[in-house]
Design goal:
The structure is a homotrimer of 115-residue chains.
Chain A: E1 4-7, E2 16-19, E3 22-27, H1 36-53, E4 61-68, H2 74-84, E5 92-97, E6 106-113
Parallel strand pairs in A: 4-5
Antiparallel strand pairs in A: 1-2, 2-3, 3-6, 4-6
Helix pairs in contact in A: 1-2
Chain lengths: 115, 115, 115
């Protein structure tokens, strides 16, 4: 069986799981008291940190699913997203509205290639 | 690192991302002015086109997640789906209701095997 | 093309699809007349059965997406989840609220490694 690498395992979840050169993880803002724009900026920063941690980069994103607490925030998502995604290396993206826990305004599920 | 192939890259997303013999993509109807049945027919047709483009077929679908703007459309989804999915080669499928952008009535996330 | 193994294929979906050492499947409670706690217990039991069927175990879970009909049930989800997930081998987990079909209170999408 291909090796499974788990980073940041708590009793509830792992921060990242890597298997067969694919990393999967979920990001919500570390500080959910921020508004949606603030939370999205945190999430992009956190994804960046995770990518560095696993030896990957923004160029290696395969798929991102974005759950937004309110679709009225799609405009700000797209503004930040377009500036963040590397030209020519964009992942596939789904984006739907879903009620999220606590004050979370956005929850991302990320799949990325790893070496 | 395994090669990543991106098809139809815009500044926001790729139409399809292929990595380690797995293709991932998202489909919404090209013409969202159609009703849900019309949008679903478009989506099935578009998936077909994408499968051909990547050298795969309906037999290679691994997983489909269906977001419906209204679960009242599950009946028409199932009717079209059952006629479309090849007997003996059905993917796994999740289907939940979620508010979608604009007039989209359905958004599909697809995972398929590729050669 | 890597072999695709489908278990429990109906005309609508497969119970499990395995490809390139990754198994994907969806679980809802066999008896949706139970309340959310009852449905969650069924789902954990059913996942267990599926893992055994494919020669994997709870230690091999990669990613779980939980759709809850009501986020008021997150507390009971976490209680059951924390007791069920093997320490040091937790998957990544996303959890959002989404309207589900019929009386389903929870729908799980699971990705697991297989030998």
């Amino acid at each position: 069986m291909a090796k499974i690498t788990r980073i940041g395992s708590s009793e509830r979840w792992a921060d990242v799981v890597i298997h067969a050169n694919v990393a999967r993880w979920v990001e919500v803002a570390s500080d959910p008291q921020a508004d949606c724009e603030g939370q999205l900026k945190q999430i992009f920063h956190q994804i960046e940190e995770t990518l560095q941690q696993i030896g990957s980069s923004r160029n290696d994103l395969l798929q991102v699913t974005v759950y937004l607490a309110s679709l009225t925030d799609v405009a700000i998502l797209n503004l930040l997203w377009d500036a963040w995604v590397p030209r020519g290396h964009a992942p596939v993206r789904a984006c739907v509205q879903a009620c999220l826990q606590g004050n979370y305004q956005a929850e991302f599920m990320i799949t990325a290639a790893t070496g």
